[in-house]
Amino acid sequence: MIWLSAYIGSILAINYAFSLFPHLDLVWSCWVGLVFVLRDMVQVRFGHWALAAMLTGTVLSYLLADPFVATASVAAFAVSEMIDWLVFTITKRPLRDRLWLSAALSVPVDTALFFGMLGVWEPNVWAASLASKLLGVSVVWALMRARDGRMPVTA
Known about the structure:
Layout: H1 2-20, H2 25-46, H3 50-64, H4 67-90, H5 95-118, H6 123-150
Helix pairs in contact: 1-2, 1-3, 2-3, 2-4, 2-5, 2-6, 3-4, 4-5, 5-6
């Protein structure tokens, strides 16, 4: 239940954070990257019931976003979360690799849909958003890899 609470709680908190402190957008983008990891952990725990959590997150994003941003936010969230779910589901690699691979494919789609729908075409904005989101995911991947490397091998 902790993963589900962290996932839904993060969606709520990120929407408020972007509204209250927009000047910290790169911090919130890193957190958005971690939402992809949290969603994957919800799927590990609840299987395909993660789709219900994704729907809940989509509705919350719509209800909490500024009206101008709501449609772009929901479209980007819904499409990228479905890509993340699909890649995470069909990939048979270790958990840490599935977390990174699913985010590496869904995060660029999230960024492109969101900024494209808002008419934001500055390469610097796109690059900063992509890099910060992937940074959050990459930190989790590196920590999991380091942890796995320290685990004793048993026969």
